[in-house]
């Protein structure tokens, strides 16, 4: 028997990724837009998101043979700080245009959490260009860092790349703490050191440029460069700091890592494991189950079967559902 | 007896500062433009600089009763990396428009050095929003750092302010290494922490915004906040690293500090003294004689009396003078 249909969405820096599935049968069809949703004066633009999403959702329903969508879950990067217009307009639009009964809007940190750990208490470190830690004891959410490349994101891709470039230029200047290996790698990637400022500062995507050097720091560390190893260890400590700040104090919480930064290699992952075991000895280190899109799917499926147990949060996770609906229990849990 | 007249210029972030003086009598008249020279696709714009400078120079000559200018010295921020068009055009323009015989173009790091220490061997740390160290053994110049707020400028105003804001947000998140006092100070200055990214990242003058928090870090340190003290000590260590990289290895070099950052207070200066005495025990710590404009004046006076002994450098210090001129000795020293 097939349960009600659902739509699960992950909106991030590389565009929309969309799944249509059915309760009990899991994902049935997938698509990706490749175009990031526009952010304007009102934050994430709900019209632009809808313009991309509606045709994708209808095509996927046809492809999957799903006649009616019951539930939509949209996870989006920037939801917490730039999601005001989305929260104000998207649920009604999706109910009107797609006939869904329930809409959940989630910050990408929440979908990353659920994708990695599922609906159990713990903490997740989500690291790509930036870094944020999110945790829950199933009564409320806590966040740490995620402040961007100048104010924090300590231990993330831009942080590691920046620290590596600084060490490269220390070697160039003859200052202490430099690494000739990182300097050679930076000049191989970006050209002569003297031209580095001119190639970095005029760009709008400075954090991405810095993060693009993080894998080189990983390579130098894997090759035994002590300065590069120290950069990775400092990053791992920062990650453990953030995880410890959001991890539930009681019980035996699960701790996981997720995000593109961990594709960098075994050295970083090993150092993070070491630092986590020092800082959170009572936590169980869990390998992430899936990515943020998987988290959105998981939330949709749990809403449909009425087993949704995650806490709501004005900025991080909000549900729109009809009163007296099957989802009442979930809706109660969310507000 | 009055020697030949000279023009000395300091071009920086707050505009042009200009002195007209005469050999043996020192500065006779001063003015400031208050408008920074434009930087365009060709780097520092020589036409914009001339348009500001020529009327100021003529008015100051009239005020000072200097009939003829013999020598012009222009020190400019950005000369090393963005001074190509200045070096190509400014000397001929000043010779043609003002009738000078000699033109010296200097990076602001060089005028800062000469302003602080005069023409003797040593090292100078110049710190404002950014940070650069410059040193000479009187045969060549060496520089360290000055790479900008993402790649270095370690220990400068933006660096200290950024580290202070990071510590404030650590306290906000409940991460290790935070300071509730820095958090209170940051929220007093910029408003609630949650709004900080939105107030910083969209601005073009991010380094200046970060640096504007450095005096608050100084205040918290003066009040005994251990995290703020640690930020200042780390800054002082970075400064000592940079000074050590450029300081002559032989003799008993002079070491000085200069720039707006040191108006922050006695704590920073004291920590820098401590770190310098550890890293450069053979150097004599000298109180800066004057600022970069004083350095430009000093270079002009030394050129006029033929006692100029500083080494030339394609990017840092270049002289244009007629062959066989009194300044031949200086010109030889410069190339």
TrEMBL record, chains A, B:
<feature type="domain" description="ATPase BadF/BadG/BcrA/BcrD type">
    <location>
        <begin position="9"/>
        <end position="299"/>
    </location>
</feature>
<dbReference type="Pfam" id="PF01869">
    <property type="entry name" value="BcrAD_BadFG"/>
</dbReference>
<dbReference type="InterPro" id="IPR043129">
    <property type="entry name" value="ATPase_NBD"/>
</dbReference>
<dbReference type="InterPro" id="IPR052519">
    <property type="entry name" value="Euk-type_GlcNAc_Kinase"/>
</dbReference>
<protein>
    <submittedName>
        <fullName>ATPase</fullName>
    </submittedName>
</protein>
<dbReference type="InterPro" id="IPR002731">
    <property type="entry name" value="ATPase_BadF"/>
</dbReference>
